[in-house]
Amino acid sequence: MGPRGRLTEGALDVVIPARNEAARLAHGLATLSGGLSELPVSATITVVDSASTDATAEIARRWSGPVPVRLLRCPRPGKGAAVRAGLLATTAPYAGFCDADMATGLDILPDVLAMLRTGAQVIIGSRRHPESDVEVYGRPFRRVGALAFNRLCRDITGGVTDTQCGFKFFAGPLARAAAADLRTAGFAFDVELLVHCRRRGAAITEVPVTWRDMPGSTFSITRHAAACVRDLYRIRAAAREPVAPPARAPLADEPAR
Q1: What Pfam families does the record tag this protein with (predicted)?
Q2: Which residue range(s) make up the domain with 131?
């Protein structure tokens, strides 16, 4: 243990899945490394280049900042494939992943770390938490599609209100075990990952976040919706064992239990 309670060895590994993110990655790395550098533990960022055809890998390779950044190549395209590869490459006691656009604010990071250090197993950002601050610019058609997708996800995960927010953190051993079983390469991977955590007896805690809809999303209703729905039904068919409802983080005026 270092001065002021700072762990001297890497304690938190954060994965950024990145496919053709050259336009947004530098800003994302600056934002994330700045937030991580304020934590009382040492951290590492892993950028997983998911078969990019732009300068994503070069930006990650040349990055220099307050938090070490390493580049991992994932030849298989798909966000789920990239997150799986990244989580499996982690070694720290705590691990997580964030989207390259940093749509989710990092002000909740100290609370997330404190919860992990006191035994929480899975902590996910939820845009549906009553205390979340969400500003949406997306097209109405996309928002309607997200609502329908969310209804399917709740049934599979035991009531998790927001499976798709790109801000998830785990006890490291659990993250690696759940990722090893992950078979969904596309955008529905979060649902399967949470199901695998549930099967290992982990409680899922949803926390409020500040979230802004950022331009440049690679998800397309017309191109990806059908595959996502197919993946969800496959995940549900494989999830034979029932799961318990998720834990919810206490509101600001409620005592922690």
Answers
A1: Glycos_transf_2
A2: 3-248
